[in-house]
Design a protein that fits this description.
The chain has 7 helices and 2 strands; from the N terminus they run H-H-H-H-H-H-E-E-H. It is mainly α. It has a two-stranded antiparallel ribbon with strand order 1-2. Strand 1 and strand 2 form a beta hairpin. It is globular, with a radius of gyration of 17 Å.
């Protein structure tokens, strides 16, 4: 099954989140080393917001109501944009990125059960991806939920999602290290 690679990565990230942060109190999960830095909880909220924003896109594709932007009809643009976005979400974090406003985490403390929410979310994400084999087989192209002019293959979207999760796992680990 083509979706196994993403499911395996999601499982690995989920296990890392549990191992790294499962012992922390809600106060520790919401702690920030600096005002411009996200807390561990904010990193998790951000990931859930981004991943959930793909659900309406895929629903629209399935229902036949999705309208592919013009740029999505240009194969070279689909490849170029997909590779560009994937390059920006790599875990090495050499370049700091500002997120789109729709994906900003809450500025106040996150819910006390943020880890449980994230774990449930990861299962939902795996189900969403595993249920997309038919769309992957047809080379479905979508646009970013944040900007209709950013287009890429669904396969690339799933690569972006799991790579982005790894990036924020690393960012959250850095916050944990700063607590010590």
């Amino acid at each position: 099954m083509i979706t196994n690679r993403w499911s395996d990565q999601i499982d690995s990230i989920t296990q890392s989140v549990q191992a790294n942060f499962g012992h922390l109190t809600p106060r520790q999960l919401n702690w920030k080393p600096a005002s411009e830095t996200w807390s561990i909880a904010q990193n998790l909220e951000h990931l859930m917001a981004i991943n959930k924003s793909y659900e309406p896109v895929l629903k629209s594709v399935r229902e036949g109501t999705y309208t592919l932007p013009f740029l999505g009809k240009l194969g070279f643009m689909v490849t170029l944009m997909g590779n560009m976005v994937l390059g920006t979400v790599q875990p090495d974090r050499k370049r700091k990125m500002k997120t789109f406003p729709i994906w900003e985490p809450a500025q106040s403390n996150s819910a006390d059960d943020i880890l449980e929410q994230f774990i449930r979310h990861q299962d939902d994400l795996k189900n969403l991806i595993q249920g997309s084999n038919d769309l992957l087989a047809t080379g479905t192209i979508i646009s970013s939920p944040a900007n209709a002019n950013i287009v890429y293959k669904l396969e690339t979207a799933f690569d972006i999602i799991v790579t982005h999760e790894a990036r924020h796992l690393q960012q959250a680990r850095e916050v944990l290290s700063a607590m010590a």
